[in-house]
Amino acid sequence: MTTLNLQAKQDFLERDAATRDPLRALSEFVWNALDADASKVEIQLERNDLGGLAAIRIVDDGTGISAQHAEVDFGNLGASWKRDAHRTSNLGRAIHGKEGRGRLRFFSLAQRARWFSTTREIVPGAEEGPLTSRAIEIHSKSLERCEVSEAESPFAETPGTSVVLTMLKSTFDELSSTEAFSRFSTLFAPYVLQYPNVEIWYNGFKVDPNLTIRRCEDLPALIVQLSDRTINDLKVKVIEWKAATDTRQIHFGGEDGIVLGSQPAHVTAPGFEFSAYAYSAYFQEVADHNLLELDDLNEPDFVVVLSHIREALSEYFRARLSEQSLGIIQDLKDQGAYPYEGEPRDQIERRERQVFDIATYAINSHSRDFSKAEASLKKMTLTLLKEAIKRNPDDLSTILKAVVNLPKGKQSEFSSLLKKTELGNIIGASRLISDRVTALEVLKGIIFDPRHRQKVRERGELDALIRDHTWLFGERFHITMGESGLSKVMNRVAEDLGQKRNGRKVTKKDGSVARVDVFLGRSVPHSDAGKREFLLIELKRPSLKLGRKELDQVEDYVTAIRSEPEFLHTDTTWNFFLVASEYEPEVAGRIHQADRPQGCSSTAITSSSGSRPGQRSSARMRLDCTSCRRSCRWMSRTQRLRQRLRIWEDL
């Protein structure tokens, strides 16, 4: 029997070691040093006589690389000592690496990497073992081969490691920029915050959170429900920087201070320079599968977690903007230019003011014309802004452009922030519910209030109110028509079904033309794309009592529709509503029937031989008489909407 040992070849190692980001490659060496309990790590960019970058040196005072670790870690891909260790050996700090791949990152930077390392050997029974040193060298053209040799220590009497990258593959001018140091700081500032005794230097500059961080805040813990698990250890830290950063990133780690990978933040935060850090054991799992290094990771569970983080960040920066606006708002109040008076009257106005205050902050901060204007002009401008937000909060960019000449970039930033936090939707939904409650109160008043019900007419009053509020019969209808003849109704039905009627008229049995007050229609989700539901509504003035005449009128509509091909040859359901407030005793038996819902006067099902197999159309006539039950549809709907309004107010 022959045993074969799997060996990693050059092409595989190149793919595993390559990265397009030179700073990411360098950061791996820093993490390796920190995992070795280094208290000081320094990246030195060494230059030649002409000022060009000649070599990169990473020096640390960690525990060094022992002979055993050199054989295991440099002789294998994976199987690193870190995989089974949860903390560093001496100081008990969180460990970054797990796979032992970091050493190969030099491949993206240089042709050759050489480690000079000194470590203190462990001698049983001895308090302190001797120092031993070794040199380790890897060439980019033979990543699978590593040369280890004894060497003199470049350190005095302490352990440590120096990695030198030579024969660089590019000039790497970007590594010397202030942007590079800024990005480097965003990676390691949380680690320094977590372990204050650690010093990390980059090209002569120290990573000092006290100098670079404006504000650091931990967001409330997040719980994310995935398809097969619940993540309940997700913590998010936001760091606001004093200086500008070239990218806004969300960094992911298994524990505080550790960065395993990053993704673009895609969070709108006007005027803020920030980085976010998300910590959870889940991210360690993702990193163990080498997925966090993908720039656009779209794994479903990860996308869900990332969306929760982004939502939390958007809410945080909305609150920060509102906080920053307080001083400006107070100045405007002192000048008499603030268009609101007193405290908010309700939660709807409170939401409006939040949007208004943020928009006002944007205008005052970025519009010189506004900031220098007189108080009277400011008040006029802000009054216009107030009304615009009240009527159309979802289109803030247009509002800012129309009301004041705010730069286009700032318009987009602030409107995007408000849209992402759904403040506009909250205001819109709250006002929508409030408007509907008002409409229902009006409807209830004209039906039941003795002062109005005798005067309200069907034509021009009641039908106009219902025409503008067809949602009373449901939100699902995509066809809505006011008072129309049955011929026009059937033309619209034929159009929706993709048929032609050739101008054929629809009449009642006596040949007269029939007109209905409201017609609604919708598509029904079904395997048959032609399945439809239609509503014909006949309204009667509140002072009229329903009798046989009115019921016969609607039954004539039913008979006329049932003879039409659009009814016979398609899978359609028709409901005919006769709506009034009272009815005569003579029709009570048709309203209350055994084995039928209350108010259902008749049902009819017609199957046509010309229709497709299993296809049929149905018609049902329903009487909706509000006087038969005081808890009528109008009242109950008012109560439900009021309840929804209270829920919005509690948000």
UniProtKB/TrEMBL annotation:
Chain spans, region Disordered: 591-621
Feature: compositional bias, Low complexity: 601-618
Stored InterPro entries: HATPase_C_sf
Family annotation (Pfam families): HATPase_c_3
Name recorded for this polypeptide: DNA mismatch repair protein
Organism: Sphingomonas kaistensis
The organism's taxonomic lineage, starting at the top: Bacteria, Pseudomonadati, Pseudomonadota, Alphaproteobacteria, Sphingomonadales
